[in-house]
Amino acid sequence: xxxxxxxxxxxxxxxxxxxxxxxxxxxxxxxxxxxxxxxxxxxxxxxxxxxxxxxxxxxxxxxxxxxxxxxxxxxxxxxxxxxxxxxxxxxxxxxxxxxxxxxxxxxxxxxxxxxxxxxxxxxxxxxxxxxxxxxxxxxxxxxxxxxxxxxxxxxxxxxxxxxxxxxxxxxxxxxxxxxxxxxxxxxxxxxxxxxxxxxxxxxxxxxxxxxxxxxxxxxxxxxxxxxxxxxxxxxxxxxxxxxxxxxxxxxxxxxxxxxxxxxxxxxxxxxxxxxxxxxxxxxxxxxxxxxxxxxxxxxxxxxxxxxxxxxxxxxx
Length: 316
What we know:
- It contains 11 helices and 7 strands.
- It is of the alpha+beta class and 316 residues long.
- Strands 3-5-4-6-7 form a 5-stranded mixed beta sheet. It has a two-stranded antiparallel sheet with strand order 1-2.
- It has a domain at 151-315: 3-Layer(aba) Sandwich (Glutaredoxin).
- A hairpin with a 2-residue loop joins strand 1 and strand 2 (13-16).
């Protein structure tokens, strides 16, 4: 039997699966998911074949015939033929009903056979008491620093759930994800802490200026107002629009301009967020870490809810 290598050596350095998970978390996550899927499929295929062998032996037949024992084809009615012909007439390339009749009958008979085989298989599964027990692979959990970035919700000490989001004000997928983020903060109010870290993508020309402006609003206590308005204007964050947004929330423009004109420190902090994100496996936005568990992309509410509920249950 062939097993995967325990390690690989590169220029004398030894790397294991654990090493890969540590250095390239995105590859580690892919390994976990694909390994689990392959293992589950392997067991399911084995179970299918084994059940058919047992049932075929009991019925003194072969595995290709066992699911069709007792099957008697019924007569396909003219009404069924007419209904299917009407439904798929365009796909039948303008064949007349008489020309397509044999194909329609063959299709309906095949459906009947498949339904009968599925029912027979369900009966076999119940009879021989199949139990598929898959050991769940623990989620790959990473240490994600908040790095003094803006946060909503409870403080770090009282947070049962901490979500660190790496995002880009000019990213349409990030904009789309904000409604899900808002719903999660409302649903888990009093339990959740939401931290925002900058990850402006290189090909978004207005992203860095927008992130600089947002960071310059922190000292005036206007960050989350600017944050919301920037995401409302994703795709329209020109220099003039950024300034309009900042003015609309009542910021002291003299202090704001002083901050943006001497932005080296802020740009350095933004670059640190990007570097930290890349080390954690972030390659696009949005990216989230729920108590260190990586969720990539603008996923539906249920995807986050499942992880959060599991985390809360584990902490009880």
